[in-house]
Design brief:
This protein is an alpha/beta fold. The protein contains six helices and eleven strands. It has helices at 20-36, 91-95, 111-116, 119-123, 141-148, 188-195, and strands at 12-16, 41-45, 48-49, 54-60, 72-73, 82-89, 100-105, 127-133, 152-159, 162-167, 181-185.
Length: 200
């Protein structure tokens, strides 16, 4: 999890990291950033998000030492390195009745259960913008689920001039070394205007 300076000081960031070692690293990063910058309040949990509250397996694959973003919630394969039991909560349990301006989801193919655990918040229009990696194609379950809840989908890309948005399904704007990313938004006009501005 990265805490961005752009969150206004009176805002609030809620983050989740199920891997116990990466959770400690993230806490250290938050503490270091807090010493250097005026940050929003950060609430950080050593949990995963999913469809229901309970427990799950965090699968650590071979190659995790080189890329610690590869761990995933799911069924282990024979080639996987190890399994870590983790606690799971839901978006609805976390959100309550609070509006959420931006939700960032990077869960290595576990997107749909995360969104299913936010059924109430999504149906109520509490979450304005959702940025997520879409590992399962343009017609993935996560994409369809968000569309049925009234979200407009865009593919996200970038250049040195800033962010780029294109209608979802019209091609991948990600670089060859990046996972395809999407923006799901309840305010597409605002999103296009903001991402159309040059610069970062």
């Amino acid at each position: 999890m990265r805490v961005r300076k752009q969150v206004v000081p009176h805002g609030r960031v809620i983050g989740f990291e199920p891997h116990p070692e990466l959770y400690v690293v993230a806490l250290q990063n938050i503490a270091a950033a807090t010493r250097k910058f005026i940050l929003a309040s950060v609430e950080f949990h050593n949990q995963a998000l999913g469809e229901t509250i309970g427990h799950a397996n965090l699968v650590v694959p071979v190659g995790f030492e080189q890329d610690d973003g590869l761990a995933r919630i799911g069924v282990p394969q024979e080639s996987d390195q190890r399994i870590i039991p983790v606690q799971v909560t839901t978006l609805d349990a976390v959100a309550g009745a609070e509006p959420i301006a931006v939700l960032k989801v990077d869960v290595e193919g576990h997107e749909l259960p995360v969104f299913q655990g936010g059924q109430k918040a999504l149906a109520g229009g509490q979450i304005r913008h959702i940025v997520f990696e879409n590992h399962k194609g343009k017609d993935s379950g996560a994409v369809r689920f968000l569309q049925t809840h009234g979200y407009t989908l865009f593919t996200i890309g970038w250049s040195m001039r800033g962010l780029r948005l294109a209608p979802h399904g019209g091609g991948n704007l990600a670089a060859c070394y990046e996972a395809p990313s999407c923006l799901a938004t309840l305010q597409p006009v605002e999103a296009l205007a903001r991402c159309g501005e040059k610069g970062w």
